[in-house]
Amino acid sequence: MHKSSSAFSIRRVTRWVTSVAIAMAVTVGVADPEAGAQNALPQLPALPALPGFDPAQALPPAPAVPNSSDVLGNVPVPQLPAVPGITDNPAFPDPLGSIDNGQAAPQGDVMLTNVPARTSMAVIMPGRVIQTPNANEARPGLSIVKLYLADYALRKGDGSDRDTYLAKRMIRFSDDNAAKIIDRKYPQAINSVAREFGLGNTWRGSHWGLSYTSAMDTARYLNKVRLSRPNSLILNWMRQASPVAADGTQQNWGTSTLRGVTGTKWGWSDYGEPTVASASISPTYTAAAFTFGGPGTQNVDVRSANAYIH
Q1: What is the pTM of this model?
Q2: Is the pLDDT of residue 7 over 90?
């Protein structure tokens, strides 16, 4: 009985030792880095490249960051185009010669350096031009360009009574609807008059309300009409301008306040910051002014011209 128990104990110890050895062998095998690498999962195959796809060009390059001057709004403004092929019509006398072409002005000219840059102004009389340094600056034409629309409709239109009526509405009452009708009928009108009269800073925009002109161009145009066609309907309608425009605006500011004025055409903007214009005639001179500001501001700025008007 005792011998049998001893044999049983030896067998139990032997099995236990064998189990421990196997467990150690398994543990060593898993811990072995090379064995782990051999037993790792197989590498997944790479995805095939898409036809015509270059990963390097997948995203467009980021836009350049503008410099500080651009951020502050100092980006250069493109030069507005001038009307090509502008020449004076020989049929109209031009006492100013080539003043708009940068040549020397006639003797007796006056430069109004005391007028703020917000206003550009020009006064033309025999032998004298009174102007601000920015008189040739192209500015929004406002309703002043209705002068050019009416001129074209009266002289180069179809001669209809309707055109005459609409032209009268444009000048006396500054009627925008009349201007819209004439501009659609004769979209070439403003540029045609600019070429004919040598108005180098005048052109039509996408419609009459987005057109440009200058104080010098406007005064120059009226001066030529005054000399060559003193009985023009346009001049007569300026003398008969309504105190109240078609939209209810009081027409009573700017060059109309100058000494000796007998007729005026006004212009103003209905959108954004106040912007006004006026163009006047007298027996001896013509005048025009454009102001980034309201009627009262223009009244103050044009006043200094009175000292040189005779």
Answers
A1: 0.67
A2: no
